[in-house]
Structures are given as C-alpha cells and as structure tokens.
Write a structure and sequence with these properties.
The complex is a heterodimer.
Chain A (H helix, E strand, L loop, with lengths): L5 E10 L2 E11 L4 E5 L6 H8 L7 E6 L2 E2 L7 H5 L2 E4 L11 H11 L5 H14 L15 H13 L5 E5 L7 H16 L3 E5 L3 H7 L2 E6 L2 E6 L1 H6 L4 H10 L3
Parallel strand pairs in A: 3-8, 3-9, 6-7, 7-8
Antiparallel strand pairs in A: 1-2, 1-4, 4-5, 9-10
Helix pairs in contact in A: 3-4, 3-5, 5-6
Chain B lengths: L1 H13 L4 H8 L2 H40 L7 H16 L2 H15 L8 H26 L3 H9 L4 H31 L11 H12 L3 H33 L1
The structure holds adenosine-5'-triphosphate (ATP) and magnesium ion (MG).
Chain lengths: 246, 249
C-alpha cells in the first residue's frame, strides 16, 4: 500500500494568543472518508482550511503525496489545484451562471479548453440532477441545489481530495438529504474526502474513520462503529451524549 | 395641496416689490433667444468634457480601488500613494483643483505639457472625480463576502484572477447606482471650468449677461443642464430597479 495522499504532522495554528490547532497528526489515504467531529470552536474548519493552505500555519508539516507543501516556497495554488473544497455557504459566485461557476477554474486555472470544460461540467451537473440548471444563476436555486452545484464545481477540476466543511449546516432540514446523497455517491465512487460534520448518523454511514477534535487536538480517532458507540475518552462520551438523541 | 402651495408661492413671488425688475433681467424672452446659439455651442463643450472624462475616471477609480485592496508587501508604496491621492483629492474642493491646474501648469512653462485650458480643466475634473469613484468602487470591493474570496482561492485562482473574475464584477454591480449618481454630478460640475474662462455653457451665459445686463441666459444654461441630468437620473433609477429585480431572480 502506498503512502497517504494528504497528511499533517504536528500541525499548530493560533490566532493571536488563542491556540486553535495544537499538534494535529492526521493521515488521509486514498479512498478514505474521514469525518471530523467535535463541538463548536474545536478547530474543524481551521484544520480543513490549513490542509488547503488557506491559512498560514505556525508549526508542523503538511504533505501532499509525500511532498512537503507547507514550505513557504511551495506555491499554494499548485496544491489547491489538486484539492476541492466546499464551505458551509456562499460558495457559488452569484454573478455567474451555474455552468460558468463550474468552468471558471478548469478554463482559467487548469487551462482546459472551454468547450471541453463545458461538456464535462454539463455531464457532472446532469449526473447530480442539475442538468436543467446549467444556465440558471445561483439565486434561482434552492439552498440544497446551490450546495450540490458547489460540489459539482469542486469536482469539475478532478481533485484528488475533497474537503467539505459542514456543507449541510446552513440548510433547511428537508434539503439536507439531497446534498448528503451526493456525498454518499462520491464516497461510494471512491473519492478521498475529509468532512467536518454535525450529522452523526451520516458520519457513521459513510466514514471509514472518525476523528474527534477537542480544543485543537485529535483526542481520539477510529472506525465509526467503535468511536461513535464505544469511545475510549470521557470527553468524547460527553460530546456524543450531547449530540446523539438518546 | 401641492397645487395650492405652488399657486401661493407664485402669487407671493410675482407680487413682490422687485418682481417687475426681476422679470425684466431674468425672464426676457428676446435675450433668451439671442443668447441661445452661444450657450448651445458652450454646452457642447460640457458634453464633450463629460464624455471624455467619464471613461477615464472609471478606469482610474477602478485601478486606485484595486491598488488599495492589494495585500502584497511589495505594493506597499503604491498603496500609500493611492491612499494619499484619494484622501487629498476628496478633501480639496473640485473648483480649487480646476483653478490650480488651469493657472499653475501654464505658469510652470513646462515644454511638452499642454496649456489648453480645455484639457487642463478636464484633467482637474478627472483627478477630483477619480478619487470619489475610487472610494465608491472600494466600498463595493469591501462589501464582497469573504467566503467568495475563500471559494475563489480554493479553486486555485490567483489573486489577480480572483479580483478580475469574482470580486470586481460583483462589486461594480453593487455600486452601479452610486457610481451613476457621481456621473450625474460630474455632468453638472463641468460648469466649474467656467471659473477659468473655458467657454462652456455657463461661461457663455455669464458673458452675455455681463455685456447686456440681462441674466436670462443663466436660466437657459440651467435648462440645458437639467435637460441632460434629469434623464440621466431617471436612467440611474431604472438601472437600480433593474439590478434589484435581477438580484431577486
Ligand atoms: N480568522 C479568525 N480569527 C480569530 N479567531 C478565529 C478565526 N477563525 C477561527 N477562529 C477561532 O478559532 C477557533 C476554532 O474555530 P473553527 O472555526 O475552526 O471551529 P469549528 O470546529 O469549525 O467550529 P464550528 O463547529 O462552529 O464550525 C474558534 O474559537 C474561533 O473563534
Ligand atoms: Mg466550522
């Protein structure tokens, strides 16, 4: 078996005096679906942003395919080309149609021919039930459709890893399902993913590994059936008691 | 009610002691007709100035606003210059800039620099309005949600690409109404150049007044400006409403 696709070693990050990530070690192998859980403020979003080099880290190393990319001499854009990321909200560019949202990066960053980028985008949009929305603008879409379009946009560049930061957290409950269904399909298709989520049932279903973050540390990690039902740490148990319906 | 107020107002004004004299010097139809061709010629200068200045102002405003929103440490001196420019030219009255350039530059007797008052005062208007427009555009740039920039970065767009394809198009759409408002005001302010003797509409009207002791042409000049600024203002409103409708989808 080859080494991890993406990994963090001794990752530290603070905002001013506030230490937000405190010695994170994380390996993400191909086809892994890693779910980050933990209470609000535990550092899930910050960890994802650091992995995408959207934040400057204070200490530690991030490696992509065994190559250190947290080095200041590495162009972060070269790394982000290989990684797709979707945020909680305001992902899509409202002045562009769904199709133009999808083709922007392939055409401008990856140098893909426009016709080719468009046909690939349309194909992906159709696969995820958005075929008829290609020329619509984001504000004509429901929240669920918007997040699905954002996911399609992230897939259009053919990323090695997908980072998803609570992509259903801002949605009405009845719209969560359609977005999770799409993530589930990608997981089944073997996409490597790291996702921060509050949806414990979903984490149990799709995760190959669950990491519990607590005050900037990965307090424990393991397969979902073990970590979510029989955690080793008292704090994990407390957290799960709070979020799981008993 | 409005009609009643208007009637009372007209009655008060026309029954005032100075009304006959006012009527003679400000509302004389023959003088209006006589001054009309000169004012019309002058007004063409105002329109020319406006049409030339507007696109240049827009370009300068956008460039200065972009410069101010850069973050690279290499560009710190340029950012400083942009801040100084906007602070200074927004603080100084436009009329002062017009007079300074029109009188100051020819006094320097620099070879190669134009001494045409038309162009010097045009540059003054461009400099002054460029600073206003830069601030309007900057407020638009700063109103863009940080997630939009994060999304663009996550797609591996470079900073210039993010500005060009994501931030600026949204920012300009958002500030289009105040920008157009500034342009209406620019059309009006082209009259400021009369202060240094550029023969535009207001200058022609004053000129006539000083020779003939009749100031009706001032109202004629006013009518010319209103004939342009009112449609411009309605157009601005219409654009604003359309933008709102579009946003609501
Ligand atoms: N740009 C920032 N400046 C200062 N502090 C920040 C910044 N971003 C995050 N923080 C702080 O870092 C801590 C971790 O934030 P983070 O967003 O990573 O948590 P999270 O686990 O994603 O929480 P949530 O579940 O609410 O999304 C929080 O205490 C937050 O206040
Ligand atoms: Mg978060």
């Amino acid at each position: 078996m080859s080494g991890p696709v993406l990994s963090a070693r001794g990752l530290r990050k603070s905002y001013g005096d506030r230490v937000v990530l405190d010695g994170i070690d994380l390996d993400i192998h191909q086809h892994d679906v890693v779910c980050l859980i933990g209470s609000s403020g535990s550092g899930k979003s910050t960890l994802l942003r650091c992995l995408d080099l959207l934040e400057q880290i204070d200490d530690g190393v991030i490696e992509l395919d065994g190559r250190e990319v947290s080095d200041p001499h590495v162009d972060p854009r070269a790394v982000r080309r290989e990684i797709g990321m979707v945020f909680q909200a305001y992902n899509l560019f409202p002045h562009l149609s769904v199709l133009d949202n999808c083709t922007l990066a392939p055409v401008r960053v990856h140098g893909t021919d426009r016709d080719e980028a468009e046909s690939r985008s349309r194909e992906l949009l159709t696969r995820f039930g958005l075929g008829d929305k290609a020329s619509a603008h984001p504000d004509q879409l429901s929240g669920g459709q918007q997040q699905r379009a954002a996911l399609v946009r992230a897939l259009c560049t053919g990323p090695r890893v997908l980072l998803l930061d609570e992509i259903t957290a801002a949605l009405d409950p009845e719209l969560v399902g359609e977005v999770l269904e799409m993530v589930r399909a990608e997981a089944r298709a073997g996409m490597t993913m790291v996702l921060a989520t509050h949806e414990m049932a979903f984490a149990r279903e799709v995760a190959t590994r669950v990491c519990f973050l607590d005050r900037g540390r990965i307090l424990e990690q393991g397969p979902p059936e073990q970590l979510l039902t029989n955690p080793g740490e008292e704090r994990t148990r407390q957290f799960l008691r709070r979020v799981l319906p008993s | 009610m409005t009609v009643f107020v208007l009637v009372v107002l007209v009655w008060v004004v026309t029954s005032s002691a100075g009304w006959p004299r006012f009527h003679e010097t400000f509302l004389s139809w023959p003088d209006a007709k006589k001054a009309f061709p000169d004012i019309a010629r002058g007004f063409w200068t105002n329109v020319k100035m406006f049409l030339i200045a507007e696109p240049i102002i827009l370009v300068i405003g956008i460039l200065v606003a972009i410069t101010r929103s850069t973050v690279s440490p290499w560009l710190t001196p340029l950012r400083g210059a942009a801040v100084l420019y906007t602070d200074l030219l927004r603080g100084v009255p436009t009329l002062l800039v017009v007079v300074l350039l029109a009188l100051g530059v020819p006094a320097l007797r620099l070879t190669g620099l134009t001494t045409s008052l038309f162009w010097l005062t045009l540059v003054a208007l461009v400099l002054s309005y460029g600073a206003y427009v830069a601030e309007v555009v900057r407020s638009g740039i700063e109103s863009i949600h940080p997630s939009q920039i994060a999304s663009a970065q996550a797609l591996a767009l470079s900073r210039p690409q993010t500005m060009r394809h994501v931030v600026l198009p949204q920012a300009l759409r958002r500030v289009a109404p105040p920008l157009l408002n500034d342009f209406v005001s620019l059309q009006k302010d082209t009259a400021l150049v009369s202060a240094v003797g550029v023969s535009e509409a207001l200058f022609a009207a004053q000129d006539y007044g000083n020779f003939n002791f009749n100031y009706t042409p001032l109202l004629v000049a006013g009518a010319f400006f209103v004939a342009i600024t009112i449609p411009l203002a309605r157009f601005t409103d219409w654009l604003g409403r359309r933008a709102l409708r579009r946003q609501r989808g």
